[in-house]
Design a protein that fits this description.
It is a single chain. Helix content is 31%, strand content 19%. By secondary structure, it is an alpha/beta fold. Strands 1, 2, 3, 4, 5, 6, 7, 8, 9, 10, 11 and 12 form a twelve-stranded mixed β-sheet that branches. α4 crosses α5. It starts with a helix and ends with a strand. The structure holds iron/sulfur cluster (SF4). Iron/sulfur cluster binds next to loops.
Length: 311
Amino acid sequence: MDAIKDQLDCCTLCPRRCGVNRNAGDRGFCGAGGRAEVFTCGAHHGEEPPVSGTRGSGTVFFSRCTLRCIYCQNYRFSQSGEGREYETSGLAGLLRSLQVTGCHNWNFVSPTPWLPFIHDAVEQLDRDGVSLPVVYNTSGFENTGTIAGLGGLVDIYLTDLRYADEKTARAASGSGDYARLARESLLEMWRQAGPLELDDDGIAVAGTICRLLILPGHAGEAVDNLRWLADNIGTDIAVSVMAQYTPTHRAAGDPWGRRISIGEYEAVRDAVEELGFENGWVQEFEGETSKELMGFNMKPISPGETGRQGR
Ligand code: SF4
């Protein structure tokens, strides 16, 4: 991790490779500075069942993001930068409170700009005998080299494969090379963490979950990504198909201004079955006009076989 810690002097943690000196107060594309910024944290029950478990996932929603998705539901803190600054000891205090609350894991959302602080806080707590599985909850827009440096810190990768077409990625998230980078990074995550592993209570302790958000007008890209997963990783990776897209923030016009259609939903759901994915969840279709944002309502593809026992 030392190489990653040094990167605040010339930040290249993510594929933007801004090269700014965040320790000197400079800020790059994401706007992250020299102290951790957190919008909120707490026990979250809306993740995949083995991550949320019964007591919730100890989720830390960091401010800032390396993408600029036009449909981002979290834009207040991901793009507008709302949040509060914390010293490493303060971040460790948040993590400790999540552990005391009984959360199953520490779930870092959009963690990449904050990796040095996460590493120090987790290490500090480890020295005090406090630890939980670490969930790296990412859009997938990552440097493979950064991911390669996370061995020993991250237990569970919870990552997206959102686009297969560079034009879509550029238009919707401002990142033309998303598909290539997300796939390369996922290969490294899989090399490190492998298939999802559960303990005797069905709680995730290690492994990889790949999320596929069905986007209006672009369901075919989710199918392309499922095919890529089957061909390049295998059908034993846990997949989580999400149908919750809701127009928000700057999402307007065709196709971004609508929810997904039943036909788009069925195309992706059918691909999961036809390609033979063994583990994961497909979110239920909520309707083209539903405004419901909360709850994942996942159903397992293979009930009772969402992972392997123990580690
Ligand atoms: S983490 Fe932020 S500052 Fe660092 S390279 Fe990425 S966008 Fe730039």
